[in-house]
Amino acid sequence: MNDDLQKRIQAALANPQNMGELAGADAIGTVGNADCGEMLRLWVKFKEQNGKQVIDRATFQSFGCETAIAVASLATELIRGKTAAEALALKTEELAGELGPLPPMKIHCAQLVEGALRSALEPGKAEDKLASPANAPTLLDRFSKPKEGGVKLTFLDEEKG
Ligand code: FES
């Protein structure tokens, strides 16, 4: 990873936005990457604005990968005020925003964020009935107690190359 990118990632990590679960979320998406073991969950809450449902707030939880956390921090800010369709139309590199182009070995980190967004927002994909605090334990809880929750985890197909 080049120094400039590392600096931009560190800048995003110095003040990460929107980390943690979001009580009362309208949609939740969880994805995992089987190769690196990283998992990421995204919560989205909508509000009505000018007769449209737009994203009021989005938050995330992630285990450890700095690039995924940096992208999720930027992406959750970027999608505020957008409709679900507008958010889904964003390309991976747009979600990474000011981090700029990612090296090939880090593109999947941004794709994890994109995958969580799709999992949350695409019709029929969002995890149901997880919005109330009683039904929405932390991501870590979900994976440490798999038999209790029935979390829907989508592993992304990764393009090798
Ligand atoms: Fe796999 Fe970042 S190293 S998500």
Detailed description of the structure:
The protein is an alpha+beta fold and 161 residues long. Helices cover 39% and strands 19% of the residues. The protein contains seven helices and four strands, in the order αβββααααααβ. A four-stranded mixed sheet has the order 3-2-1-4. Strand 2 and strand 3 (52-62) form a beta hairpin. Helix 2 (66-78) crosses helix 5. The longest helix has 18 residues, at 104-121. FE2/S2 (inorganic) cluster binds at residues 33, 36, 38, 65, 67-68, 108-109, 112.
The count of domains is 1
Overall mean confidence score, pLDDT: 84
CATH third-level topology: Sufe protein. Chain: A
Total beta strands: 4
Radius of gyration based on Cα positions: 15 Å
| Bound ligands, each once | FE2/S2 (inorganic) cluster
How would the global form be characterised?
A: globular
Q: How much of the polypeptide forms β-strand, as a percent range?
A: 15-25%
From the helix content, strand content and strand pairing, which structural class follows?
alpha+beta
Counting H and I runs of at least 4 residues, what is the number of helices?
Answer: 7
Helical proportion? Answer: 25-40%
Low-confidence stretches: 128-135
Task: List the helices and strands in order.
Answer: HEEEHHHHHHE
Q: How is the main sheet built?
A: 4 strands, mixed
| Ends distance | 16 Å
- Per CATH, which architecture? Alpha-Beta Complex
